[in-house]
Amino acid sequence: MKNKKLSSIALLLLLPLLLSACGSENSLPTVAEPPEDSTSPPSSALLGETEDFGQSYLDSFVFFGESTTYHLKNRGVLKGGTETKQVWGPDGGTVNLDGTIGSLVIRYPETEELLTLSQALSRKKPSYLLLCFGLNGAPQKLRGGAEAYKKCYRLLLDTVKQSSPETKVILQSAFPVAENMDMSAYSMTLDQLNGAIETINGWTLELAEEYGMKYLNTAEILKDEQGRLHMEYQSGDGYHLTREAYLLILRYIRTHGWK
After folding, report:
1. Kindly report the CA angle at 95 between 102 and 143, in degrees rounded to 5?
2. Integer angstrom CA distances of residue 96 from 57, 64, 189
3. CA distances from 247 to 48, 145, 232, 241, 254 (A)
């Protein structure tokens, strides 16, 4: 009888531990803390700091992406100034990363013809192609999830590989937004939006690893202590960049080169 009583007490003492280990209907999952001295090796896709690859390296790029990429042309920071032929896009300037990306028509700057992206790549065969996506529709992309985002990006990457297989493709991080960003059209806070952009950048890095391409984390030089775009780098709306910001980015590209 005494042994049965002791067994019952032991079971009562162990019950909270068993519930914690197995989970219950109302329990929340816990995340184990990593050891203090644990470090993850950097991704093989991440471009680290190098010597300055120089202006000729920068001149060998074609830039393609959202309006924050197209404004490289407006700011006149590339070879040819505002008449540069290094920035590609449709007549509207910005590109949306969606299911139509593979058949997108751009204004080919060499001849001013309207060409599909595939046709332009087959004709130009650039040495380097820098792609930058993730800010446009970031909340929707986050809700859609990693696979939906990657599916659209793969359409673009497959088009590039098929049209110009020797081109070295670099996937660039999307940029954070500043505290003066108008958030009235968003169902989230500024910091939640920057968190969404950061998550999408992580998905982009995974794509670079998947395709054997490179990832350029230029976002890191634009952030303040709160993970927001530095106010002095935004041009008035909280997300488009100043000329000085673009010069900083181009310097980063030159000093994080890919041979």
Report:
1. 85
2. 27, 11, 23
3. 19, 33, 13, 10, 11
Contact 107, 73 (CB under 8 A): no
Distance linking the first and last C-alpha atoms of the chain: 79
Residue 30 lies in a domain: no
Instruction: Tell me which H or E stretch contains 151.
Output: helix 146-163
Determine, yes or no, domain membership for 17: no
Residues 149-176 pLDDT 10s: 999 999 999 999 999 999 999 999 999 9
What is the rounded distance in angstroms from the CA atom of residue 92 to the CA atom of residue 220? 28
Q: Is residue 25 part of a domain?
A: no
Query: What CATH number is associated with residue 193?
Result: 3.40.50.1110
Tokens of 99: 């299911």
Segment holding 154, helix H or strand E? helix 146-163
d(CA 234, CA 3): 74
Residue 31 lies in a domain: no
- Distance in angstroms (rounded) separating the CA atoms of residues 174 and 256: 17
For the chain, the average pLDDT equals 87
Estimate the share of the chain in helix, then strand, then coil, as percent rounded to the nearest 5: 45, 15, 45
Residue-range definition of the domain harbouring residue 58? 54-254
Residue (of 40, 65, 41, 44) closest to 210 by Cα position = 44
- The pLDDT tens digits for 197-235 are 999 999 999 999 999 999 999 999 999 999 999 999 999
What local confidence, expressed as pLDDT, does residue 42 receive?
A: 80
Residue 62 CA, distance from chain mean position: 17
Domains: count for the chain? 1
Q: Per-residue pLDDT for 116 more than 90?
A: yes
